[in-house]
Amino acid sequence: QIYIRDRSRTTHPHWVDPLLPGTPARLPDGRMLTAADTPPAAAEGAPTGGAARALAVDGRLLTGDGVQVRGFAGVHQGRLLVEAGLRDPAEQQVLLLDPDTGELTVLADDPAVPTVHSVLASAGTLLLTAAGREGIRRTVRTPDGREFTPADHAAPLPWRVAPVLQRVTEHGVPTALVLPRGHVPGQRLPVLVDGYGGPGFQDVSAEPRRWQHRQWWADQGFAVVTVDNRGTPYVSPAFTHAMYRGFSEVTLEDQVAALQALGARHRDLDLGRVGVRGWSYGGYLSALAVLRRPDVFHAAAAGAAPTDFRHYDTAYTERYLGLPQEHPEVYERDSLIPDAPKLTRPLLLMTGLADDNVHPSHTLRLSRALTDAGRPHQLLALPGVTHMTPGGTREKLMALELEFFRRELAAG
Question: Do strands 269-279 and 189-194 pair parallel, antiparallel, or not at all (unpaired)?
């Protein structure tokens, strides 16, 4: 028999966020380290609602609104190793936190260059990683204070990607813009929105690996835009929970507003030629965009899109949308199937026939609804392909998508 004693309980009016990496943890003195949210700030006009993911010891908050905690990496010389964001959500710093006083000391940061810092700790030795536009640097720091860089981790990237990271709109939405290498100012470019936009995943980050494939797209003749709309992590709990009881409206509202804000700042973006591409929730975003805002988005390539969340994983959908029996209007509003007769823009649908995450029936149902409504579209079914498209297939898909967007947006 197993006996469970209820020692603590966490509740939230929307949903309880997943545990921060490294928590809960028992500290060496026996106290319990847990994740928590700070209360909303009283100040008006805070674009993120003023709340932050925080750390608490035995229920007492250690960090405040100015620190967005992302993970606990261990104890080092009596203090807590914390990965957190101090300024922009695209960056990350490594901090030392006193578990008694809450005093913070910055261990790794690059204030002048957007960088994501992380740390691994073992037996008093730290492995510090800094990932940014200059590439990836790793430093080993020994218990006696010596530092050295492993030779096999010292090589620079063969070429650099430097996305323009900006926050726009009244909500402080994180965005990134990647232009073709060698772009001449004044040359108008078709826009390709490439992102995810769903809960639990951050796209707009200083990490260079996020931008290498997007630089490839840019070099084909596009201005590539990525937007982390409300509902995505690392801005604040209030920002993340804006997606409660509905995906479609918040996602599309922020994507449109951010795109228009970037177009006003960067005149080389031709908002009369806008394509959108994505996979999984990004595929949902792509199809949603051309179905409901064809005035803004002019072509879409939607891969593995969950077209009706009544048929997706309950552990995912019910956290954000509630029970379909109790909130049928939410699921109906977020479904793409009723929008099929509205399609007026080119739409390329893609699905892996072995996808056991977003089942191919999602894409096939939308295709059937489009066909029944007499709406022309393209359907690409991939035999043997799962939700995670293998490298060789992915390259061929990108080539097909490129041909699609060049044709529909007259790009390249």
Answer: parallel
Phi and psi angles of residue 347, each rounded to the nearest 5 degrees, phi first: -135, 125
Active site residues: 280, 355, 387
Residues in the chain: 412
Side by side, the strands of the sheet bearing 93-97 are 68-76, 79-85, 93-97, 104-108
Using alpha carbons, select from 306, 301, 326, 325 the residue that is nearest to residue 316.
306
Determine contact, residues 4/37, Cβ cutoff 8 Å: no
- Does the pLDDT of residue 188 top 90, yes or no? yes
| Residue tagged 């530092």 (tokens) | 147
Cβ atoms within 10 Å, residue 201? 16
Q: What is the pTM assigned to this prediction?
A: 0.93
Residues contacting residue 245 through CB under 8 Å, at least 6 positions apart? 320, 321, 322, 327, 330
Q: Where are the beta strands (DSSP E) in 134-231?
A: 135-141, 147-148, 164-168, 173-178, 189-194, 223-227
Q: How many Å is the maximal CA-CA distance in the chain? A: 72
Helix count and strand count (H, E) for the chain: 8, 20
d(CA 276, CA 298) in angstroms, rounded, equals 8
Nearest Cα residue to 404 out of 257, 303, 259, 281: 303
**What gap in Å lies between CA 287 and CA 404, rounded to an integer?**
15
- Second-level CATH architecture of 164-409: 3-Layer(aba) Sandwich (3.40)
Is 93 within 8 Å of 71 (Cβ atoms)?
no
Buried b (16+ CB within 10 A) or exposed e, 250-267: bbbbbbbbbbebbbeebe
**Domain parsing of the chain, residue ranges:** 25-153, 164-409
8 Å CB contact between 308 and 295: no
Cβ proximity of 78 and 121 under 8 Å = no
Name the least confident of 8-12, 75-79, 160-164. 8-12
> For residue range 7-29, what is the model confidence (pLDDT) as tens digits?
567 778 888 887 799 999 999 99
Residue 385's contacts (CB-CB under 8 Å, 6 or more residues apart) are 352, 353, 354, 355, 393
Q: pLDDT for 173-185, tens place per residue?
A: 999 999 999 999 9
Instruction: Give residue for tokens 């640097």.
Output: 137
CA–CA separation, 221 and 214 (whole Å): 11
